[in-house]
Amino acid sequence: MTISSRGAAVKIVLAIVITGCSRKSTDTFDLPETAKNRTIDNIISIEFSKKAYHFSLAEVSKGITIDYTIRVKQDIYNAIPRPQDDGFVSGPGPGGLFPFEKISGNGQSYSLRDLGLGPQNEKPSRTIKKGVYAISFEWEGHNWTGPSDFDNPKGDPFPPGRYILTVRIVGEVETVKRKKPYDIANSVEVILVP
């Protein structure tokens, strides 16, 4: 059986057309048609149930919990959430995102920034599913940057004062042209009294 050059050209053009039709556009985060003008900041939000939290130093020393939610208003395809600790070794939280929590102010700071070294594997793109994900920030009132590789001890307790708890999620969304970064954060005041 012989194929003429014209027949081969038709088959190649047909293959290109079929391949082109099956590829999804990701320029707008692969969102449904009704949401193509939305940005990712309008699709993902971090929400606290209060405008401020008040605790005594005694309460904090026993351990406190501040609940918050990450709300994803619709599926986001081709997302690459990124860990934010120094070694990029933290695991994903609910929904596959990597929330990073930090409380600071008045020269004090607590976060799990240093979890030690580990494999820095490229995180594959994934779908972040629509949903409301409940998460809790737990803290015993000390300065600390995390355990590191050497069991870094916790520092001094925070003194009374006003502090800011910030939760941030970062990453990228793969599009046809490039990877578009996202950085979403929300903060709440935490007031410590004697």
TrEMBL record:
Domain of life: Bacteria
Full protein name: Uncharacterized protein
Source species: Gimesia maris
Higher taxonomy: Bacteria, Pseudomonadati, Planctomycetota, Planctomycetia, Planctomycetales
